[in-house]
Amino acid sequence: MSWLSYPKALNRALADALAEDETVCVLGEDVGAGMAGVTLGLRDRFGAGRIVDTPLSEQAFTSMGVGAALAGMRPVIELQIPSLLFLAFEQIANQAHKFSLMTGGQARVPLTVVVPGSGSRLGWAGQHSDQPYSLFAHVGVKTVVPATPSDAYGLLATAIRDDDPVLLFAPAGALPVREDVVAPLVPIPLGSARIHRPGTEVTVLAIGHLVHEALAVAEELAGEVDIEVLDPRTLHPFDWEALGDSLERTGRLVVLDDANRSCGFAAEVLATASEEFRLVAPPRRVTRPDGAVLPFAPELDRALQPSREQLRTAVRGVLKGGWAW
Amino acid sequence: MTQVSSPTLETPAERYRMMRLIREFETRALALVREGLIVGGTHPYTGQEAVAVGVCAALRTGDQLTSTHRGHGHVLAKGADPGRLLAELLGRENGLNHGRGGSMHAADLSLGILGANGMVGAGAPIAVGAAWAAGRRGRDTVVAAFFGDGALNQGVLLESLNLAAIWRVPVVFVCENNGYATTLPASAGVAGSAVGRAAAFGIPAETVDGMDVAAVAAAAGRAAARARAGQGPSFLECRTYRFEGHHTVERRMKLSYRDAAEVAAWRARDPLLLDPPAEAASIDAEVAELLDRAEEFARAGAVPAATGASRYLYADGLRARAGAGA
Prior knowledge:
The complex is a heterodimer of chains A (325) and B (326). Chain A is of the alpha/beta class. Chain A has 13 helices and 14 strands.
């Protein structure tokens, strides 16, 4: 038994992959020193030839990862800041992701991109606080958002072994989470959801760090309503079966999603649930506002993120609401 | 991936033959565009043949290249089967990419052809990555990155030059300066010079006559030798010209951004007329026959079944959810 932190879990997944497979390498800014915490100590153990400090050229080194992947390696790219994904969007969405189809299955691009700290870290303001996972799920890049250290380990281990590009968002809000690990850390398949708390009356599907917020609210409201907390873990491919099963039990859905509202991931979950699953009340979502840009002042930053109060209101809303309203 | 042998392009006759193959391939492709069998149009390589052939003459089996939207010449010169390339342009199952890529994404990874690419400059960092990976794995692979003068103004190309230089990556950067980024003259779009960009990163660079296959092959040979000797990247600016428009659609548009005298002057420097071998006529006949068979093969190819439209989307066979009509 040991206490495992979230960054340490990612670090261990990288170390295990590097030790097990010589084609695995890490490319990114300040990865040698381990500035983001995820690669600490790896250069000492595996050498600067495999833990490669890059200049500040996100577009070129991301696509370099594509080329290295085409040449048979399994590169892991670290992008320290979520907004760097906007710079490298072409390389991930238009190159890495499309090679398999465009080449008629000749090319495999086993590239992993890790963003160690997506979303708000309070005080980092407009250009360092985005949560752009919906964009990548939309274009079809395999996208994972682990909520816990053992899931972070297991999903990164699987991402590196996957023959397609995989993007792993480590939400900043989940980085402080520590876990009492009793079982061996193992790879977790993509597209497999996890029920953190079974319940019978309302399904709260929460993404990333918001899983922990949902659990807190579920405990708080335990005397009032029996909430099931469902963590998809992977946004694409998504475990629709697990959502359908959960809604068979509860019939009521709230989605807790740190993305912006319009065209955000919660919108897809609500749409599919409405189209395909049993709902006894209109579903609700708690998200950032439309087109949110997080302001600097902590009070303003927090004001735009999904809150426990909003979740409580939404849960009570789906409990009361029927379709005839 | 099994490696397939690249063609030898050592003798003047072999080089002439490959240039003729590219020229005639493009002629047939244009006819198929007019016939309506190639949809969307293509970007003809006509006029630039000496660059692809000269550079590929310096590449060996196992070497790789990244290509551009104007990629037929590179793909053929590295050894792709003309019938399968033509079938790809027709969108058939027997095409190089099973009809999933078309002209702008033609690839044959077994020959080290990492793909034509629809984004200007996008092949350069992919070439750097492939070459870096090969070096890490102890192979003496050289990767040629083809791009045009338009790419000289793409940030990702400049980033790639820097990465290749600091890590001494075995890449040959090949700038095919055909004078125009679509319709924008290089003189209006490029401050400084092509080789000046390379020099700024300490990369050995030279400008060669891109209409002279022997000159291109000699320069590419020097660059490839440097790469194989562990001396890192080189940069070639090949001055050339496209005899056709930017793309086949342009023929119908009657644009006037190039002076007729300019086009005529470059056509007079046709690489196929520069120094044809004695056996040119018999080579031409052999190429024509080869392309007859290629066209027959391509036309006979099956149209892909609509049910397979998302096949190959993921390497592991993950199926996308149904969209339209579901």
